TrEMBL record:
It comes from Actinocatenispora thailandica. PANTHER family: CYTIDINE DEAMINASE. CDD domains: cytidine_deaminase. One of its GO terms (molecular function) is cytidine deaminase activity. InterPro entries: CMP_dCMP_dom (IPR002125), Cyt/Deoxycyt_deaminase (IPR050202), Cytidine_deaminase-like (IPR016193). GO terms for cellular component: cytosol. GO terms for biological process: nucleobase-containing small molecule metabolic process; pyrimidine-containing compound metabolic process. This is Putative cytidine deaminase Cdd. Residues 9-131 form the CMP/dCMP-type deaminase domain. Signal peptide: none annotated.
Amino acid sequence: MDEHHEPAVDWAALRAAAREVMRHAYVPYSKYPVGAAGLTADGRMVTGCNVENAAYGVVLCAECGVVSALHATGGGRLVAVSCVDSRGIALMPCGRCRQLLWEQGGPACLVDADPAPIPMAELLPHAFDVTDLSAGTSD
């Protein structure tokens, strides 16, 4: 697959992969396992689950695992992401994860939602990204 011919998104397969990896979540504190799966522009599927820590603010969300797996398997760009709870129901990414997904997928990256996927541009309007960094530099 090249950047101009993105793979078709099989939402059922993404949700199934997210649900499967959710079973490996480390959640001794919240007891709230989350799994996520992403589809890359070149057709790979990458997954991640949440990993808690006794210092709650240091928790790794499932989407963090997806981004790590994306880069560990060759990088690229995400075109779709599904994040699910223990029932397999689609979840919306938290604010930090929306920023991560924007950086790795851009405004057109689709996020699983009911009744239909939502592009990142709607989940994170007026996003901060690399163009803001270059515009705000001083000499």
